[in-house]
Amino acid sequence: MWSVPYDEPRDDHDRGIPDYRGLASHIGHRLAANGPNIIAPNGRAFWKLTDADSGALAWLAFTRPNGSALARRKVWTLIPRLQVFIANWFVSVDHQLTEVRWVHTNIDIYEARETALLVPEPSADDLKRITRPEAVLTLDDIDRHKVTTVLGKGTDHALKGRR
To answer: What domain of life is recorded for the organism (predicted)?
Structure first.
């Protein structure tokens, strides 16, 4: 990321002013990654959901903590084969509970992009459940976001290659 050692900043040869932009960027990224409730500039908070019993990766999800009242309740989960995030009512319910089926770990967008390639395909039963909401959301509330929009073209292409 930054090729010059931090204790030897590059000089702006035109003005003789040290260039600390790389160091500042590095420190800023490190602080953002270690902060609680990491929120990307687009207002999304990403979550890695692992099984509470086995610790196995189950879902990659995002929330919109600064969105409308409805958006704050929703959790969108990745369906790798379809390359979309779909509002998932049963993960939304789990996200609000104290005794959970999945452990929700807040991650940054960089880890979310890596995790997207590791997420297992949901079962056929889970896909049916997503499209038949029983709580929190109605059928009209179930919306989709393309991987390209949420994680970028690179992740989208990598998921296509995973098939």
So the answer is: Bacteria
C-alpha to C-alpha distance for 132 and 137, rounded to whole angstroms: 9
For residue 116, being part of any structural domain is answered with yes
- Concatenate the DSSP letters of all residues of the chain into one string: ---S-TTSPEEETTTTEEE-HHHHHHHHHHHHHHSSS-B-TTS-EEEEEEETTT--EEEEEEE-TTS-HHHHH--EEEETTTTEEEE-HHHHHHHH-SS-SEEEEEE-HHHHHHHHTTPPPPPHHHHHHHTS--SS--GGG--EEEHHHHH-HHHHHHHHHH-
Q: Would residue 24 count as lying in a domain?
A: no
pTM: 0.74
pLDDT band at 32 (very low <50, low <70, confident <90, very high): very low
Number of structural domains (the chain) is 1
Query: What is the residue type of 159?
Result: L
Q: In which domain, by residue range, is 112 found?
A: 45-162
| Segment 83-118, tens digit of pLDDT | 999 999 999 998 888 888 899 999 999 999 999 999
Neighbouring CB atoms inside 10 A of 154's CB total 10
- Whether the per-residue pLDDT at 9 is higher than 80: the answer is no
Residue 28 within any structural domain of the chain: no
